[in-house]
Amino acid sequence: MNLKTFKIGGVHPPENKLSAGVPIEAAALPKRAFIHLGQHLGAPAKPVVQKGDKVKVGTLIGTADGFISANVHSSVSGTVFGIEPVADVSGYKRPAVIIDVEGDEWEPAIDRTPTLKKEITLDKKAIIEKIKEAGIVGLGGATFPAHVKYLVPEGKNVDTLLINGVECEPYLTSDHRLMLERSDELLIGARTLMAALGVEKAIIGIEANKPDAIALLERKAKDYAGITIQPLKVQYPQGAEKQLIKACLNREVPSGKLPLDVGCVVNNVGTAVAVYDAVQKNKPLFERIVTITGKKMKKRANFVVRVGTPISQLIEACGGAPDGTTKLINGGPMMGKAMVSAEIPVTKGTSGIILVDASEAKRREPSACIRCAKCVEACPMGLEPYFIEKLTEYARWDETEEAGAADCVECGSCQFTCPAARPLLDNIRLAKTTVMRIRRERSKK
User: Fold this and answer.
1) What's the confidence (pLDDT) of residue 58?
2) 72 class by beta-carbon count within 10 Å (0-12 exposed, 13-18 middle, 19+ buried)
3) What whole-number distance in Å separates Cα of residue 107 and Cα of residue 76?
4) Average pLDDT rounded to a whole number, residues 56-72
5) Does position 1 have pLDDT exceeding 70, yes or no?
6) Is the pLDDT higher at 102 or at 324?
7) Closest-CA residue to 45 (of 348, 352, 366, 350)
8) Is there a contact between 12 and 234 (Cβ–Cβ < 8 Å)?
9) Is residue 305 part of a domain?
10) Are residues 248 and 131 in the same domain?
11) Sorting pLDDT into bands at 50, 70 and 90, what band is 169?
12) Final residue of a domain: which of 235, 250, 281?
C-alpha cells in the first residue's frame, strides 16, 4: 500500500477509536430543539420565523445574512416557542430558534425514499445554488459555508477536488462510519462537487487505520470516473487542509493563501454526503453523525442526530456519564473545546462528544521551558511555538505576527509534545486572535 503523508512535524497521540465498530443509529427526537442561528463561520442567519409559527422538518427558519453565512433549517416539526439566547459550546449565549416538537412531519419536497440517485442532472451554477439553499457547511469542524468554496474567482485555476476522510483526531469515528455506511452517497456527492468545480479529478484521502473504509471505497470508486482513493500514513494533524494537500498532491499552500491558490478545493466526507442529500434528494442540512465516546462509558455510539438536540440526551442514551467524569469535550481531544454544560445543543459542527475521566482531564503543572525544541519538531507549519508563546506573554504583537502566529492551525501538537507542560496552544491562540484583529483594523485604514 502506497502510504503518503506530509513531511514537516506531526505527532502520534493514542488513537482511542473505541467506537469505530459501532454502526450508526438514529438518536431519538428531542422534546424541544434549540437551533442556533449562528452555527457556521461568518454572519449568523437572519430568522424568518416567529413565536407561534408551525414548522416541518426541513423548513427554512433562518436565511444567510451576508456573503459568508449559511441558511438554517428546522430539524424537527412543531411550534416555534420563541427566538431566545441559548448557550453555545463556549458558554456564550447566542440567538436560537426554539421549537417544541410535535411529531415528525417533513417538508414534502424532500425525497425520503431509499433509492440511490446516481445521475447528476443539474449544471454547475444550479448545483452551487442547491448547496447554498441547503445551508451546507464544512462538516469537518470549520463550518465554512460550502457554496462559497465553489465560487472560484476569475484567474484561479482548480484541477483537483480533495475529499477529507482522514479523521485524525483521537476518539472520533463519525466519518469512519459514514464512509462505511454511505459510501455510494459519498462518491456521488464527490462527483457532484467535481461538476460544481468543473474538474475531472478527485482524491479521497483516508488514513491507514481505516483499512475497511479504504478497501470498500477503492472497490466502489471504480464505478465513478475520476475518483481515486489515497491511503495515508497515520500522522496527526493530517486532516488539516494544508497537511492533506501536501500529503496527497505534494503542493504547499503559501502563508496567507488558500487551497484555491494551489489548484484545489478541500471538503470533508460528511460535506460530500450532505451535498448528495441536497442536490439529489432536496434535503437541507439539519442532521449529522455525532460520536459519543469515552474510556469508561457503558455504551459508545455513532448517532445520526437532529441539529438542536441537547447533548445531555445523547449521553443519557449511552447510559449516562460514568462516575468520575470531570470534563466533556466537544470535538476531538486535540482541537476540541471543553463544554460548560451538557445542555448545549448539537450544531452542524458537532462531530463528537468525549466524556473524560478526572485522571485524563487534569493538566500537569507547567514548568520552565527547557529549550528542547520538541515543539518546533512537532509543528506541522514549521513555526517556533516556544518563541511565539514568549512573545505573547510580553504582548509583543508585531513580533508575534512576524513569527507566523496567524499561520498556526491550532492542532495542539506543540502542547501535546511539551515535556514542561507549557500552555503553548493557549498562548498561540491568543496571539493568533490578536494578530488577526490587528490585521482587520489595519485593512480598514
Assistant:
1) 98
2) buried
3) 10
4) 97
5) no
6) 102
7) 348
8) yes
9) no
10) yes
11) very high
12) 281
For 364-391, write each residue's pLDDT tens digit.
899 999 999 999 999 999 999 999 999 9
According to the model, what pLDDT value does residue 360 have? 84
Is the Cβ–Cβ distance between 168 and 14 less than 8 Å?
A: no
**Model confidence pLDDT, tens digit, residues 400-410:** 999 999 999 99
Q: Look at the block and give the residue holding cell 423548513.
A: 59
Residue whose C-alpha cell reads 471543553 in the numeric block: 338
Question: At CA 175, angle to CA 260 and CA 72, rounded to 5?
Answer: 70
Measure Cα distances from 439 to 67, 149, 254, 282 in Å: 20, 23, 18, 40
Look at phi and psi of residue 288 and say left if phi exceeds 0, alpha if psi is from -120 to 50, else beta. Answer: beta
Query: Is residue 275, in this structure, part of any structural domain at all?
Result: yes
Report the candidate in 441, 344, 326, 281 with the shortest Cα–Cα distance to residue 89: 344
Q: Amino acid identity, residue 403?
A: A
Q: Which residue has the cell 516556544?
A: 386
| Mean pLDDT calculated for residue range 196-213 | 97
The DSSP string of 43-68 is BPPEE---TT-EE-BT-EEEE--SSS
Q: Do residues 128 and 277 both lie within one domain?
A: yes
Q: What residues have CB less than 8 Å from 99, skipping those under 6 apart? A: 32, 33, 35, 55, 74, 76, 78, 79, 80, 81, 308
Domain count, the chain: 2
Residue type, 254: P
C-alpha cell at 430: 491568543
In a domain, 246, yes or no: yes
Q: Strands 325-330, 352-357: parallel, antiparallel or unpaired by DSSP?
A: antiparallel
The residue to which cell 408551525 is assigned: 54
Q: What are the backbone angles phi and psi of residue 263, rounded to the nearest 5°? A: 80, 25
Structure confidence by residue, pLDDT tens digits, 414-428: 999 999 999 999 999
- What's the pLDDT score for residue 155? 87
Residues 277 and 383 in one domain: no
Q: What is the CATH number of the domain that holds 241?
A: 3.40.50.11540
Rounded-to-integer distance, Cα 332 and Cα 211, Å = 21
Domain boundaries, position 243: 124-281
Domain end call among 233, 265, 281: 281
How does residue 226 score in pLDDT terms, banded at 50, 70 and 90? very high
pLDDT band at 362 (very low <50, low <70, confident <90, very high): confident
| Distance (Å, whole) CA 360 – CA 295 | 10
The amino acid occupying position 135 is G
Whether residue 270 sits in one domain with residue 137: yes
Q: Take residue 55 and report the three cell numbers written for it.
A: 414548522
